[in-house]
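Structure in, sequence out. Go:
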């Protein structure tokens, strides 16, 4: 089969691994720089151009669209969908996953465990928002943050108020969340491919750090998860409509709670921690499911 991958940096571990896995199985995988694609929308036959040439009809496209290029990247992916190319994850599902608040609303609607989360626009509601989140300590998060940046733990009402006011002053959207202390600075990431959990790891924050992000100096190891955690991860992927994703969960006193569902999960940490060939499982999924015009939405939000 002929695959395309939308990515900015061809050299990243995850991108190289996906290419290797495709080639090992006799396929070709072309890495296309998302921002260098240009498109012809005003015609019945949607087209995408790259380096002066029209792109061929691939069997599938693997979107690896970084958070900073979401807007243009999704436009390119939608164009592939309009051409009938099968996307590993649909543009609509990726768009949902990029909005933390919308994601949490979708997960809540499906009855999936979440940390108590509050959100308000009006800064005068600060006291009320902290109270609704169960009182301090609370975790305050930038809505558009990634890799743990913009995630703050506030121990006292006073510090919570000043952090909320500082973020508000900067004109950014935030959410305020119950702090799951019993997680002990660890979280679980479950990789879901085609409705199944294929690998699981536990990430632990560096000494004295409540954020377990690998980018923040955390470390990862393979872990066995409970059937409840497994089913939570699978249901979260389904609620978001993602075929391939990383579901981040915390072990709370009231069962697993989902923090985030990532539509472009990094493969390096989890493949190295578990020894599982996740790239191979993703390619196998595409072999099985990629058909022309087989997307549910064809880019229609
Ligand atoms: P990002 O999307 O920027 O990675 P997350 O929401 O995943 O932000 O938070 C980063 C890390 O902070 C998580 O991996 C987790 O270890 C920790 N964390 C986030 N929210 C909570 C919470 N409500 N209670 C306890 N720890 C949390």
């Amino acid at each position: 089969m002929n695959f395309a991958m939308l990515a900015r940096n061809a050299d990243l571990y995850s991108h190289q691994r996906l290419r290797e896995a495709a080639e090992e199985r006799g396929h070709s995988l072309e890495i296309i720089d998302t921002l260098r694609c240009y498109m012809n929308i005003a015609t019945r036959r949607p087209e995408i151009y790259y380096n002066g040439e029209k792109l061929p009809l691939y069997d599938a496209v693997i979107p690896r669209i970084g958070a900073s290029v979401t807007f243009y990247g999704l436009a390119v992916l939608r164009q592939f969908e309009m051409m009938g190319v099968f996307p590993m994850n649909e543009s609509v599902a990726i768009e949902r996953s990029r909005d933390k608040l919308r994601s949490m609303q979708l997960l809540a609607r499906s009855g999936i465990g979440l940390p108590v989360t509050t959100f308000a626009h009006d800064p005068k509601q600060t006291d009320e928002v902290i109270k609704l989140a169960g009182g301090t300590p609370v975790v305050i998060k930038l809505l558009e943050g990634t890799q743990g940046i913009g995630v703050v733990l506030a121990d006292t009402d006073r510090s919570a108020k000043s952090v909320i006011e500082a973020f508000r002053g900067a004109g950014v959207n935030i959410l305020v969340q119950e702090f799951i202390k019993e997680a002990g600075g660890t979280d679980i990431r479950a990789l879901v491919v085609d409705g199944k959990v294929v690998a699981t790891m536990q990430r632990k924050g560096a000494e004295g750090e409540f954020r377990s992000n690998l980018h923040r100096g955390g470390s990862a190891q393979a872990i066995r998860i409970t059937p409840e955690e497994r089913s939570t991860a699978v249901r979260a992927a389904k609620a978001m409509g993602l075929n391939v994703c990383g579901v981040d969960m915390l072990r709370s006193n009231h069962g697993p709670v989902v923090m985030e569902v990532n539509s472009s999960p990094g493969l390096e940490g989890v493949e190295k921690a578990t020894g599982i060939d996740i790239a191979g499982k993703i390619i196998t999924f595409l072999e099985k499911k990629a058909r022309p015009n087989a997307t549910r939405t064809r880019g229609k939000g």
